[in-house]
Amino acid sequence: MHILICGGAGYIGSHMAKMLASHGHTITVFDNLSTGHQEAVQWGELVCGDLLDQAALDQLFQGRRFDAAMHFSAKSLVGESMSDPALYYRNNVTGTLNLLDTMRSHGVNRFVFSSSAATFGNPITPFISEDHPQQPINPYGQTKLMVEKILRDYDTAYGLSSVSLRYFNAAGADPEGLIGESHLPESHLIPNVLKSILDHGQPLQIFGDQYETRDGTCIRDYIHINDLCQAHLLALEYMTDNQGAHGFNLGNGQGFSIFEIIHTAEAVSGRTIPFTVAKPRMGDPAVLVADSGLARQKLLWQPAVTELAEIIETAWRWHQDQRF
Ligand SMILES: NC(=O)c1ccc[n+]([C@@H]2O[C@H](COP(=O)([O-])OP(=O)(O)OC[C@H]3O[C@@H](n4cnc5c(N)ncnc54)[C@H](O)[C@@H]3O)[C@@H](O)[C@H]2O)c1
C-alpha cells in the first residue's frame, strides 16, 4: 500500500514509517518540520508542507495515489494549549479538516488518527476503558476529541473509515538506535530523566510525592513506541473488514510510578539521578492507566515490550548517541 504519513518527521510518525517500510509499504511523509526533524525521515519521500496550506495539500495529492493516511501531526503541549488555544484549534482541528477533505476529494477513505488519553479528562476510574466519559480539561484534549467526533460524522456521511488510537504515554526508541524521541521543549518524563543524567544540568524536578499511590508519586502508563506502531498496522488491516469510525485506548496496561521510572533508569544507566520534589501540579491525577482490552480483543494487539527496563534501555541507547 502507499501510505501518507502526516507528521512523519516527528517522534511517533518516524517510527511508524520505519515499521511500514519493513512491511513493504510505500511511504510519503508530509510535515512542516515545526517540531519534527528532516533527519528522522529515512524511509520514504518527505514532502515539506503545512496542513493549513491548502495549495500544499493539493500538490501533495497531485500524482500520488494513497491507499490510506495516518495522521500524527499536531501541536501537543498541554500548557501551551491553555495559553494559546487558537493555535491548537487551528492547527489540530482546521489542519485535520483540510487533510480529511482533501482525502475525500481524492477518494482516500482509510484514516488512522493519533488521539490521546487527554480526551478523558480527570479519570473517575484508575483503569481507563473506551466507555470512560470523554471530558477533556484542556484545549489540547478538546482538539483531539473534536477530531474523533468529526471522524464519526465523516464515516456516517461520507463513508470515510477511521481508527482513533488514544495513546497514553509513548516511550522508548527504535531498538537499532536510528531514530528516537526528540522534542523541544521536552515534556515527557523518561527523556527528561535520561537528559538529567547526560546534561549534568539541573536536578530532575518531580511534582508531588504524597499522592495516594504505592510510593507517593504519580502512576502513568508507558507503552513502547514499536508496540504503539504495531497497533497502527493492525488498525489499517481492521478497516478492511470493519467500516466505521472506531476508537481504541492504547497503553500497556501497567502503571509505573515516577520513582519506579527513576530507579529503573538508574539501574539501566548505572548513574544516580538527582531530583527535587516540587508541589503537585493542578489537574495531575494520581493514577492514569489504560485498559486496552478492546484493542487486544478487536485488533488482536498484544504489546511485546512489557518490562519497563526494556523500554528505558532503548531510550537510553538513543539519548546517549542522539543524532537529531
Ligand atoms: N508522544 C506521546 O506520548 C503522545 C501521547 C498521546 C498522543 N500523542 C499524539 O501523537 C501524535 C504524534 O506525537 P509525537 O510525540 O510524535 O509528536 P511530534 O511533535 O514529535 O510529531 C508531530 C509532527 O507533526 C508535524 N506537524 C505539526 N503540525 C503540523 C502541520 N500543521 N502541518 C504539517 N506538519 C505538522 C511536526 O513537525 C512533527 O513532525 C500527536 O498528534 C500527539 O498529539 C502523542
Can you walk through the features of this model?
The chain has 324 residues and is α/β, with parallel strands linked by helices. Helix content is 39%, strand content 20%. The chain has two domains: 199 residues, NAD(P)-binding Rossmann-like Domain (Rossmann fold, 3-Layer(aba) Sandwich); 101 residues, UDP-galactose 4-epimerase, domain 1. Helix 6 packs across helix 8, helix 6 packs across helix 10 and helix 8 crosses helix 10. The protein binds nicotinamide-adenine-dinucleotide (NAD). The site of nicotinamide-adenine-dinucleotide (NAD) has 27 residues, from helix 1, helix 4, strand 5 and strand 8.
The separation of the N and C termini measures 29 Å
So, the CATH homologous superfamily of the largest domain? Answer: NAD(P)-binding Rossmann-like Domain
| Strand/helix succession | EHEEHEHHEEHEEHEEHEEHEEHH
The major sheet is characterized as: 7 strands, parallel
* Domain tally: 2
Strand content: 15-25%
In spatial order, strands of the major sheet run: 3-2-1-4-5-7-11
Q: What's the CATH topology name of the largest domain?
A: Rossmann fold
Quote the average pLDDT: 96
